[in-house]
Amino acid sequence: MESRLPERDRPWVMRTYAGHSSASATNALFRRNLAKGQTGLSVAFDLPTQTGYDPDHELAAGEVGRVGVPVSHIGDARALFDGIPLAEANTSMTINATAMWLLALYVVAAEEQGAPTGALTGTTQNDIVKEYLSRGTYIFPPGPSLRLTTDTIAWTVANAPKWNPVNVCSYHLQEAGATPVQEVGFALATAVAILDSVRDSGQVPPERMGDVVQRVSFFVNAGVRFVEEMAKMRAFVRLWDTLTLERYGVRDPKQRRFRYGVQVNSLGLTEAQPENNVQRIVLEMLGVTLSRTARARAVQLPAWNEALGLPRPWDQQWSLRMQQVLAYESDLLEYPDLFDGSRVVEALVDSIVDGARIELDKILDLGGIVAAVETGYLKSALVASLAERRRRLEAGADVAVGVNRFTETEPSPLTASGAEAIEQVDPAVERSAAEAVVSWRAGREPSTVEVALAALRAAATGADNLMPATLDCVRAGVTTGEWAGVLREVFGEYRAPTGLSASSAMREDATLTGVRARVSETARELGTGRLRLLVGKPGLDGHSNGAEQIAVRARDAGFEVVYQGIRLTPGQIVAAAVEEDVDIVGLSVLSGSHLAAVPAVLDGLKAAGRADLPVVVGGIIPPVDAAKLREAGVARVFTPRDFALTSIMDELVTVVREANGLAAG
């Protein structure tokens, strides 16, 4: 048949995003996944590793090994990749602020295996911009962060030419509220900032910019509107080809090829009727595989139960099998692009291209992506877009099956086992990791470590590429926290804009009006000007979307909102609650550290003489954990099942009234 390809296409790289507990446990998981047919590794790191802390640091409490694997030094890197030939592996590492450090650990671990650096293939995400906007695992200000990215790219061009040193990540932008137009425009603006920085650094000769461009990859999100998502990817392909030709003069079409991997939308998965997530994942996968000219180079899928907690190995296997059925059982890979010449698809692509160009030009007019981050323009745009998305969901204009429509359900056999339906992280993991890093430090040659850190400090203070000094730190046995600590001293730390001040208010409706009246009446009865809500993000969890939407809706409902952003210690939250004299504290925890973080805040309030202050909690919290939190003194526990934000506001008023002995009203 003429319409078929002369030879069936090779499947994309199939990954499973994996990492938890310890390097040795994760290594065992990697080996099992590879044996099941996975063709690439995708490493998830825990939050202390992502934010540059060792397991024994105060801010790491409750977070070690929970959403990924802790990697503190070269010993951990050896254990993580033990028995996995790194000369042959294709490894993706989801790491940003500490990307240079993790790449250096990987390079040295490969050296010790005898693998030449020039043979290494894989990706470090290394996109710090989206951390300021959506994910929250930044450390340093935008300028120094961009320098770390630039130095990593320049070093790999010269030393690891098969490695993708940066993976521009629009994935979290969509989760933070980005429309397809914003996702494409903001991601391309990030790529422009990175490529301009490399070009202007003088570290790469102008004639080698094509080598830089061809190693820039993207990491995108695919939602359930899979026709629109497929058109978005075709728009990305077209815009990237034009941009790299016109702005950077890359003449070779192969170097201009848009290369991307994908994780389909985890935050679009639901706690309610979680079995529906299976078909959501399959449909989302189609959006990035159906169009041959815009097909993903690598795909990793979430598991059906990610809205409940950490997936088990069996859950991850199910997601891998979804990919394998599509790639090997269906006839998808036997045909040319199915949509070339489609007027419907081309019109949709054109609209996304035109809109994304407007967004890109707007950001460049502001002075580029760094300026757009620092002024708060991008964050405010995302908060406003997400608020509109939430409004449509609550109004029923957008349907989420099992959540705001078709909510009648039979008991699910998949979740009948309760807490056994998700992976449980042993609390002993954190204690073991903290003890291990203390032992590691004690076993090193102190003078070697001091010399390596001094050289890193000197390089950071000056203008030298930081990768050679970082590699020397790895070989000396420096830890993740020590490496990041030196750079914190030189570069300082950063607090990104919250995006709340310029976000649009919700359209008025009768329900919101009623809640606002209750807020006003309760404040009058208490003799205060306004009810005050503190929204707190304890620990290292940077998923701030939910906290920001709560803060925006609370403000619309008449609360005075105190929100200081992400990554606060329990002590800082308690101090803010006391100093601001708030009426209620709301804690948002999505990393699974709620059983450590929340009691620490409750104990702190008790010690400060404010045990009377009501505390509510929101996050991905299994029922058994919610019961424990309520027993500890938490007034209410909200989970993704509680999608109606105005109803949550109404409940917050009730909590305040109960705590102050006011009659129900």
TrEMBL record:
Transmembrane segments: none annotated. The keyword Hydrolase does not apply. Gene3D superfamilies: Cobalamin-binding domain (3.40.50.280), Methylmalonyl-CoA mutase (3.20.20.240). Residues 530-659 form the B12-binding domain. Its cofactor is adenosylcob(III)alamin. Keywords: Cobalamin, Cobalt, Isomerase, Metal-binding. It holds the Pfam family B12-binding. NCBIfam families: acid_CoA_mut_C, acid_CoA_mut_N. Heterodimer of an alpha and a beta chain. Belongs to the methylmalonyl-CoA mutase family. This is Protein meaA.
